[in-house]
Please model this.
Amino acid sequence: MEKKVLTAAATKTEFIKSIHKWLMKTLIGNGFEKYCNRFNIEGSSIICELPPDYFSDFDIPGGTKIEMKFITKKS
Model:
């Protein structure tokens, strides 16, 4: 089977989808499936709106979002 050649932008999109899929499997595998809906792909980012109880030792202010932004660099 011949592999499809991706553009740099398409490669980034596929990478983001694979990271998100891995994250979902990891959350579910560790008993944290209730947080899966908190992680969403938005463009070139994975955004997480953290719930106040995400960390056992800390309270998190409501509405706190963490963004994992991915950029493409070619050498």
